[in-house]
Amino acid sequence: MCAINTFPAPGPKADLEEGTVLSPRFGADGLITCVTTEATTGELLMVAHMNAEALARTVQTGEAWYWSRSRQELWHKGATSGQVQTVVEMLVDCDQDAIWLKVKVAGDGGCCHTGRQSCFYRKIEVTHGETRLVVA
Amino acid sequence: MCAINTFPAPGPKADLEEGTVLSPRFGADGLITCVTTEATTGELLMVAHMNAEALARTVQTGEAWYWSRSRQELWHKGATSGQVQTVVEMLVDCDQDAIWLKVKVAGDGGCCHTGRQSCFYRKIEVTHGETRLVVA
């Protein structure tokens, strides 16, 4: 298990799409997009990013780890807030450039640093081609 | 409406998080992440990217437009497949670097280029620290 944070390099398209090997396609910035939903309700909680180490730690520990782009550091979600995310299911998309975590959230069950349950608390309303954000 | 694809530059954190102005934070590559779910079931269909023009066209037309990173071109989802995505609701996250589209899909209701309904058709199973992809 020592090399678990070294994922195999992505192979041909057929392997990527139909194979059984997780070979995540990290971007030029070394990151892969992660979508996190609440395991029971399906609510979209957040969109974040993982580098190889964050993904490996998530696999190893069963808790969500991300790469904080603003702080430029590895981020064990909930380590300070108590809102630890326990992974219930983990999926990958067709071309392996996105991860989907279904989680149970500890603490107060929240996710967003603004105090909301989900980071997606505003709708984009469109009126005569003009956009306006409205709290959902 | 002529300048709808020119979104205002992101302002201070308080405006980004609590304001009513959509000021999307496109990355260095000019793209913002978009999560697309089925409006009724909530199923996660795909994760894709939008540049300012794709986002503007989505707002203007009520149908999902993305930026295809592989083809490096604007992508009206469903234009060739018939799987056009009509936007039912559109949300933005706290720091405005991710968009969430809730859509109804035309045609056969599918989304993935492999023929599946959703791009997320494989679970990541972990056994003794080793990962394996299994069709969900």
Automatic annotation (TrEMBL), chains A, B:
Domain of life: Bacteria
Family, per entry: In the C-terminal section; belongs to the PRA-PH family. In the N-terminal section; belongs to the PRA-CH family.
Pfam families per record: PRA-CH (PF01502)
Keyword list, A-Z: Amino-acid biosynthesis, Cytoplasm, Histidine biosynthesis, Hydrolase, Magnesium, Metal-binding, Zinc
Record has Cytoplasm as a keyword: yes
Location of the protein in the cell: Cytoplasm
Example GO molecular function: magnesium ion binding
EC numbers, comma separated: 3.5.4.19
Record's protein name: Phosphoribosyl-AMP cyclohydrolase
Entry's cofactor comment: Binds 1 zinc ion per subunit. Binds 1 Mg(2+) ion per subunit.
Annotated positions binding Mg(2+): D93, D95, D97
The gene coding this protein: hisI
Gene3D superfamilies linked to this entry: Phosphoribosyl-AMP cyclohydrolase
Residues engaged in binding Zn(2+): C94, C112, C119
InterPro entries: PRA-CH (IPR026660), PRib_AMP_CycHydrolase_dom (IPR002496), PRib_AMP_CycHydrolase_sf (IPR038019)
Chief localisation class: cytoplasm
Subunit: Homodimer.
Native species: Microvirga aerophila
Domain Phosphoribosyl-AMP cyclohydrolase: from-to ranges: 46-121
GO cellular component labels: cytoplasm
Function of the molecule: Catalyzes the hydrolysis of the adenine ring of phosphoribosyl-AMP.
Catalytic activity: 1-(5-phospho-beta-D-ribosyl)-ATP + H2O = 1-(5-phospho-beta-D-ribosyl)-5'-AMP + diphosphate + H(+); 1-(5-phospho-beta-D-ribosyl)-5'-AMP + H2O = 1-(5-phospho-beta-D-ribosyl)-5-[(5-phospho-beta-D-ribosylamino)methylideneamino]imidazole-4-carboxamide
GO biological process: L-histidine biosynthetic process
Cofactor (UniProt): Zn(2+); Mg(2+)
Pathway: Amino-acid biosynthesis; L-histidine biosynthesis; L-histidine from 5-phospho-alpha-D-ribose 1-diphosphate: step 2/9; Amino-acid biosynthesis; L-histidine biosynthesis; L-histidine from 5-phospho-alpha-D-ribose 1-diphosphate: step 3/9
